[in-house]
Amino acid sequence: MSRSQHSRAEQLAAEIERDILDARPQPGERLGFRTELIERYGVSPSVMNEALQILRERGRVLVKRGVTGGIFVNDVPPQLRIGVVDIWFDGLADARDMFEARRSLEDLLSETALHRATPEDVQMMAWALDELHGSREDPKLFFVAILRFHIAVARAARIPYISDLYATLSTLLANTIVKARFIDDHERPANESVVVHGRLLEAIKAKDADALRRACRVHNEMELRETHLPPGKPDDEQPQLAAHEAG
């Protein structure tokens, strides 16, 4: 296979993988016969064969021969809806547990950072906030910027082992993202996420414990909305900053 054909096969494998993630099929669900996929995607048999081999090596599909054979879904990466982003993680069967472990440390680290953060720490948080503000059109960059903001907070807390554990969990989540996609009508809640992270920063900078608790409460309610969404399920209404702060 030529270099251009191999490149096309990699593109096709990525396209089929995206279609699998969008459809959220169950493992063992049939995608079709090889000939059907060739016609569906408009490619040559050699390109399809190479793409299927790539997907087999990634553990995404199974290829079975015979009348009852075809191309079947082998595994679908775990998916979480985190704030305004749907994210699929490759190779993390316990992605939800890992995310919950990370999240459970955030309030402790934020409260400690309130007392220990240096001006240099605050600057690192501000840079991450700027990155978050500028990445509202790219779901993966948006989520990674959120992780970097909280890693900066964790490092400012300077709690031996716990700060490093938090950074390790966050980095592992960032490095195993296979796909990220904004939810529908994400603009307003994405802007609200930028605002609430800004309030976390300002509270830590001002060493204002009451403001930090309010910002943490809003942040926690906004962040993890739902996991492993079934096809066609409507999104829940996003929380309103004003409504939370009025409570």
UniProtKB/TrEMBL annotation:
<keyword id="KW-0238">DNA-binding</keyword>
<keyword id="KW-0670">Pyruvate</keyword>
<dbReference type="Pfam" id="PF00392">
    <property type="entry name" value="GntR"/>
</dbReference>
<feature type="region of interest" description="Disordered">
    <location>
        <begin position="225"/>
        <end position="247"/>
    </location>
</feature>
<feature type="compositionally biased region" description="Basic and acidic residues">
    <location>
        <begin position="225"/>
        <end position="236"/>
    </location>
</feature>
<dbReference type="InterPro" id="IPR011711">
    <property type="entry name" value="GntR_C"/>
</dbReference>
<feature type="domain" description="HTH gntR-type">
    <location>
        <begin position="6"/>
        <end position="76"/>
    </location>
</feature>
<dbReference type="InterPro" id="IPR008920">
    <property type="entry name" value="TF_FadR/GntR_C"/>
</dbReference>
<dbReference type="InterPro" id="IPR036390">
    <property type="entry name" value="WH_DNA-bd_sf"/>
</dbReference>
<dbReference type="InterPro" id="IPR000524">
    <property type="entry name" value="Tscrpt_reg_HTH_GntR"/>
</dbReference>
<dbReference type="InterPro" id="IPR036388">
    <property type="entry name" value="WH-like_DNA-bd_sf"/>
</dbReference>
<protein>
    <submittedName>
        <fullName>GntR family transcriptional repressor for pyruvate dehydrogenase complex</fullName>
    </submittedName>
</protein>
<keyword id="KW-0804">Transcription</keyword>
<dbReference type="Pfam" id="PF07729">
    <property type="entry name" value="FCD"/>
</dbReference>
<keyword id="KW-0805">Transcription regulation</keyword>
